[in-house]
Amino acid sequence: MAEENKSSLDPLAALCKRRGFIYHSSEIYGGMPGFWDYGPLGCELKQNVKQAWWQFTVRGREDVAGLDATIIMHPRIWKASGHLDTFADPMTMCKECKKLMRADQIADILAEQKKKPVPHNPEGTLSCPYCGGEMTEPKPFNLMFKTVVGPIDDPSNVAYLRPETAQAIFAQFQNVTSTSRMAVPYGIAQMGKSFRNEVTPRNYTFRSREFEQMELEFFIRPDEAVEILHGRVVTLADNPDLNGPVQDDWGWEVWHKYWVEQRKKFLNAVGLPTEHFVEYWQKPDELAHYARACVDIEYDFPFGRQELEGIAARSDFDLSQHQKWSGESQMVFDDPLKQAAKKMDENAKAAFIEKVQADWVRRGKDVEAARKFCLNLFDGKYIPHVIEPSAGVDRLMLALLCEAYEEQKLVDEKGKEDIRTVLHFSPKVAPIKVAIFPLIKKDPDQDRIAREIFTKLQKKVNVMWDVSGAIGRRYRRQDEAGTPWCITIDAQTVADGTFTVRERDSMQQKRMTYPEFLAMMYDALEF
Ligand code: ATP
Questions:
Q1: The pTM is what?
Q2: pLDDT-derived band of residue 413, with 50, 70 and 90 as boundaries?
Q3: Separation between Cα atoms, residue 23 and residue 37, nearest integer Å
Q4: 325 near 79, Cβ under 8 Å?
Q5: Could you tell me if 256 and 387 are in contact, meaning their C-beta atoms sit under 8 angstroms apart?
Q6: Alpha carbon 343 to its chain's center
Q7: What are phi and psi of 318, to 5 degrees?
Q8: Domains annotated on the chain, with CATH
Q9: pLDDT at residue 122 tops 60
Q10: Nearest 5°: phi and psi at 421?
């Protein structure tokens, strides 16, 4: 986004409405706060973002399998996960103007009003940012949407719209493990809708009540299992190569950092340069009690620096909780581990147990549980630990739109100034990849050849046909949609088959043959 547009989302939001990226949901009835619809260009962008994530995270790897679970699941899932008891925001109300807001967002709202970026996770101050009135004592407000399953509206039939996609992955862990025939370390990925009854949905689509997530649960061995297998656990202090192939002797710390790097590579690939986001490593007192580390990838949105996605090392908390609440074992059997443990004599095993017990006690855990854990390891059994890269589709789309938007001042040969509004999307996510223009609408040869090229390309990517207006105007329309290439069919095309390809960012034009264009396009679209 150009410097002068940085402080406000307004020009971008106006473009998004005008060109059909984003509309208010139910707009003809006045809209609903926190609900947004994607128009023709928006839904193409969304499909491309999701497809890119799936390609990068699932299909492009050997060690990740996919899942598509229901939105409404057994309510005990949310008891086990902790969402029923603790998935709440501190809600407060102004005693004067009666506005409701999240107590922990008051400082953000104040900073936004002054149009300054906010520091991370600031302390909330409790006076109303709108009228200065006194605020009520914050009370926890559970963010899950309730519904009733079946025809009888009774508390026993209450269910919830999922507030995250991750829990379905844990609940189906054993099924996917046995049917995919994958072994830890491996991951399960899911994309889909999530719902949170946010107290104050704000900042355009950034915080919505209905949104989509793209989540990966990457299951790894506990470090103690890695130690039995390899006699060592590689940590970050060992300077492992995170760009090469994954290694069996990595401990959780390395896996976590590996996934942070993978996520950054993905963001680069879809069009966010590394220098435009930051890694925020949560401090020990900010971490959930079960988490060992959590990194937020934060992006400088026009309304401040905010979380784009998170990568958490969640230990074995989730699967352990589901084992406890469902009564179904969530352990895996790891034959190489069992074989490695067989080679340990009794003294080595006793020393190992003692070491693990000392470590667990240091971390405030139970000594007897540590012994049982070790005995299970010697049998090749454990509950896997997990690294969770969790991203929001809509939030990433908003970041990509902010990043792509530019109002360029152009001066023509006669010195006349003009503004070109352009979305510099990466071709990988651009809603329309190619626009085809016959130069002269009424020329039957140009029209026929243009149609042929259009039809051939349509089978491969999203293509736009445009015959109306001067070529310059047609270019501008595509610039606003973020279309990387415009092809113009002219008299020379009729003569020799070459056409003009105009590149969006440089505005350079080049004559190409169809095979040359295809090769260039595929190169730009490949991950
Ligand atoms: P926040 O602190 O912004 O509420 P969170 O830490 O609760 O987010 P997670 O539960 O970790 O978020 O969800 C993972 C990702 O899902 C977020 O990084 C974000 O991209 C997306 N996400 C979460 N809540 C929303 C929402 N209300 N609207 C849009 N995207 C969301």
A1: 0.92
A2: confident
A3: 5
A4: yes
A5: yes
A6: 43
A7: -65, -50
A8: 22-71+163-332+384-397 (3.30.930.10), 76-159 (3.30.40), 335-379 (no CATH), 432-525 (3.40.50.800)
A9: no
A10: -95, 125
Contacts for 46-52: CB closer than 8 Å, 24+ residues apart: 46/212, 46/393, 46/397, 48/428, 48/429, 48/430, 48/431, 49/270, 49/393, 49/396, 49/397, 49/400, 49/429, 50/191, 50/212, 50/214, 50/393, 52/266, 52/269, 52/270, 52/428, 52/429, 52/527
CB 167 less than 6 A from any atom of ligand 1? no
Which residues on adjacent β-strands are paired with residue 187? Answer: 64, 218
132-154 burial code (b ≥16 CB/10 A, e <16): eeebeebeebbbbeeeeeeeeee
Place of tokens 């989540």: 215
Instruction: Give yes or no for residue 253 CB within 6 A of ligand 1.
Output: no
Residue among 481, 489, 441 at smallest CA distance from 462: 481
* Segment 50-72, tens digit of pLDDT: 999 999 999 999 999 999 999 99
N residues, the chain? 527
The per-residue pLDDT for 4 is 46
Residue 433 corresponds to which tokens in the numbers above?
A: 């990849």
Strand pairing report for 485-489 and 434-438: parallel
Residue type, 303: F
What does the angle CA 525 – CA 188 – CA 224 come to, to the nearest 5 degrees? 125
Give the type of residue at 505.
D
Please state the rounded mean pLDDT for residues 505-514.
97
Is the CB of 391 within 6 Å of ligand 1?
yes
Q: Which residue has the tokens 């986001």?
A: 277
In 327-432, alpha helices (H): 335-342, 346-362, 367-378, 393-404
Phi (first) and psi of residue 130, to 5 degrees: -95, -40
Beta bridge partners of 215: 190, 390
With a CB cutoff of 8 Å and minimum separation 6, the contacts of 349 are: 341, 374, 378
435: tokens are: 């626009």
Cα(207) to ligand 1 centroid in Å equals 7
**Residue with the nearest Cα to atom 16 of ligand 1?**
392
Q: Give the pLDDT confidence of 288-298 residue by residue, as tens digits.
A: 888 999 999 99
Q: Assess whether the C-beta atom of 105 lies below 6 angstroms from ligand 1.
A: no
